[in-house]
Amino acid sequence: MNRAAPLLFVLLGCGQAWSAEWIAYVGTYTRGDSKGIYSYRFDDSTGKLTALGLAAETSNPSFLAASPNRRFLYAVNEESAGSVSAFSIDAVKGSLKLLNSVSSRGAGPCHVALDKTGKWLFVANYNSGSVAAFPVHDDGSLGEATAFVQHSGSSVNPQRQAGPHAHSVNVSPDNRFVLVADLGLDQILTYRIDATKGLIPAEPLLAKMAAGSGPRHLALMPGFAYAVNEMLSTVTTFQYDAANGSLKEVQTISTLPAGFTGANSSAEIALNPKAPFVYASNRGHDSIAVFRVNIFDPKHYGTLSLPGFVSTQGKTPRNFAVDPSGKFLLVANQDSGNIVVFRVDQSDVGLSLAGIEVKVPSPVSIVFARKR
Q1: Could you give the CA distance from residue 223 to residue 293 in angstroms, rounded to a whole number?
Q2: Is 228 left (phi over 0), alpha (psi -120 to 50) or beta?
Q3: What pLDDT, in 10s, does the model give residues 200-257?
Q4: Distances (CA, A) of 347 to 74, 273, 295, 324
Q5: Banded model confidence at residue 147, pLDDT cuts 50, 70, 90
Q6: Could you give the count of Cα atoms lying within 13 Å of 297 in the half-sphere of its Cβ?
Q7: What is the pTM of this model?
Q8: Alpha carbon distance 126, 166 (integer Å)
Q9: Is 71 exposed, middle or buried (CB count within 10 Å of its CB: 0-12, 13-18, 19+)?
Q10: How far apart are CA 346 and CA 37, in angstroms?
Q11: Confidence of residue 5 (pLDDT cuts 50, 70, 90)
Q12: pLDDT range class, residue 364, cuts 50, 70, 90
């Protein structure tokens, strides 16, 4: 079993304390008051957010991704005739300039990710259950899709799983594979990053989840993958084999406190880059579940502890993001229209309110791009 994680966390957490200013971009649904992507100045020494305004007017930019060099931003346009848009970033003003838009090759694109070189972009089309790869040009603009895969099949829930629903595209730490969580199939499918096409199927092709799980998003680190399962409100821990991109399930744990009986669906999952924590959001319980990663017990290495919980101080936390310093967690509460900042600390839960909140209509995703 891979033992890189403890060293990873130690190395990431032992550097000198320093502060940086970032631009935080917020993707939204534009079905109400929102007009597109909003930007904020973020100070990672205090957690303060300062509104910069509407960065780009665009339709339903529900999920965003920043290029590795932080010069470009990409957004899915979650429509029936789906598209993905490329923007250049004005590092002074935080504004965005549209470079181009291309078809996502499917309906309802809901997730976007770039490979670590910034040369390939991947999109998951939820409604039509497909994935596509796009070349990224030197100027940040997108070419038409060079790879397209239509998923097929179903699972046990006739309302939610009558067909495929690709929900996220997740690039492996070594940049060799893309793992696609398909909620409709209860599967995580593995694709190989290809220098010519962008994406090709890999063997073994898939990991099967418990029936009715509804895998949604993944968090990856060397040797392990963590999947948040929307429909059962669970997180599944996998051993990840970097040689072939395969997954082996080792644990499934609830994202909810014992005794909770209300309606809930889990949404986002993320690792803290500087500390052994995994976070997951609950829509319904309206909380962040905080799991500690076991990095000391060899028999249970990489597994998660029973979580602690913090209220998100809002309704329907669809997405959240850990800032690059690992010191703050920002939660986007979609239905209450607010972003709430939490401080990562040494409390029993590991998160506490930072006393910072901003209003933004229908926030869905948050990404960071370095300003200076």
Answers
A1: 13
A2: beta
A3: 998 878 999 999 999 999 999 999 999 999 999 999 999 999 999 999 999 999 999 9
A4: 36, 18, 19, 21
A5: very high
A6: 9
A7: 0.94
A8: 5
A9: middle
A10: 34
A11: very low
A12: very high
Q: Which of 2.80.10.50, 3.40.50.300, 3.50.50.60, 2.130.10.10 is the CATH number of 4-12+21-370?
A: 2.130.10.10
pLDDT at residue 2 above 80?
Answer: no
Q: Encoding tokens for residue 330?
A: 């920002």
Residue from 126, 223, 131 nearest 178 by CA: 131
- Taking alpha carbons only, the member of 126, 209, 139, 131 closest to residue 171 is 131
For residue 13, pLDDT over 70 is answered with no
pLDDT bracket for residue 372 (50, 70, 90): low
Q: How far is CA 354 from CA 41, 115, 285, 365, in A?
A: 16, 33, 21, 20
Phi-psi region of 47 (alpha: psi -120 to 50; beta: other; left: phi over 0): left
**pLDDT tens-place string over residues 337-354:** 999 999 999 888 999 999
User: Taking the alpha carbons of 249, 260, 286, 342 in that order, is the dihedral positive or negative?
Assistant: negative
Structure tokens at 251: 């644990």
Unique residue bearing structure tokens 């038409």: 144
Pair of tokens at residue 31:
């079905």
What residue spans define the domains of the chain? Answer: 4-12+21-370
Residue 79: per-residue pLDDT: 97
Is 12 strand, coil or helix?
helix
Q: Give the C-alpha separation, 178 to 122, whole Å.
A: 9
Query: What CA–CA distance (Å, rounded) separates 54 from 243?
Result: 43
